[in-house]
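Below is one such record:
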Amino acid sequence: MNDVWPDKCGVYILDNESTATRFIDKKIKELDSMDSEEPFQVLNLDTLIQMHLKWLSYLPRVKPFYAVKCNSTETVLRTLNALGTGFDCASKGEISQVLSLGVKPENIIYAHTTKPQSHIKYACAQGVNLMTFDDEEELQKVSRCHPKAKLVLRIAVDDSSSFYRLSSKFGAGLSTTGRLLECAAELGLEVVGVSFHIGSKCSQSLAFRQAIADARSVFDTKLLGFQFSLLDIGGGFSGKDFPFSEVINGALDEYFPFESGVQVIAEPGRYYAESTFTLAANVIAKRVIMEDMRTEGESPEKLMMYYLSDGVFGSLNSVLKFTDKNEVTPYLHRAVDNDEKRYRSVIWGPTCHNIDKIVDNYLITELHVGDWLLIDNIGAYGISISTEFNGFKRSMYICVTPTHPSWLYYHHKLCCEVGFHFLVYESCGSTKPVERQTKTYQPMSMSRDTNKGSLTLLHYKEIKGSLCS
């Protein structure tokens, strides 16, 4: 095993003089010294924690149930479990994964309206009771496989302002909800609430307001004796900011005031995962194409083509399916003169497929084989749906956290309750080799470098297991 990747996946604690960017610099130098072009991702746990604190600040009434499908990296799941989120699972596999990490069954919603019977039976056996439905056939299956389930009726809402629409596939029309509730009552099933999903990357805040109003109309159906106590406002939250919080909070106060006693949950995925991951990929090949400008007296223009060690079949799979290519902004790892000429460029992934294109007509300074490009905000869906097409391995990921106050506040939970371990590694601010010795990490007693006065890297020796297999 080489020195670049730890033998177990762990968290590197950065001292006060270090940043995630400097950590990436160091990793790249190590890879270069080994003539390795292996791509890697850096997961910044502090960013993940900050996103959670931001959620609590902007939507204090809404408990997040993280959408596991968005990024099922074990480190992310363990961290969110320690922070107290719930989990939105869509299959037996996802339920099994989060349960194996110590998540309680009551903190899981089986949020898929078309479930295999065997998966429903598994949920029943594991005590996962909360699940969604939108059709009579689904109610029949639940009646047979999990008669004690606590059901949530998913309604179709206007998702025309979303980048990725879902209501054409899931959700009951408002005109059909009465019949569905009658069917549930006839089968002796318990319906506890209503859910909706406005689609991925919604651009209009009023979509949330109208959906919440629609849910209220279903809550007001009291003829069948159901006592609804849960509202699930789904996902669709941006990974960059919180533009809709004022509208959502206002609609909740109007239609589901605090004194109503209704519990409100949501299913954010992209919001948590997107900004927490950065990709580093190597320029493995380059082509220069001289294009005829077709104007007399002008010289042909250079079109640059670069090929990276990772692409849309790997970590950037979401570029192909879920992301506007204009949002992908690779940047050069090494320093660049601001006056250096930029060239129109196409950046490809490593495979032989012509759809493996990361960006097109992208202005960037001239690159060279061996350079490294960084791409931020790649944590949503890329890992979950990445492949090893053409034999290119999935990129490794490394977890880091600066010694930010939010980390110091939560590290006790992460160590004692979740079983994180930390790895000895030289300080990012130092070029001296480190002695590879094992130190047992005692929570809340971080050693201190007396010369720098800053927290140093520590090792938590597999007291309760590793972050990832």
Q: What stands out?
A: Residues 1-9, 421-469 have pLDDT under 50 and may be disordered.
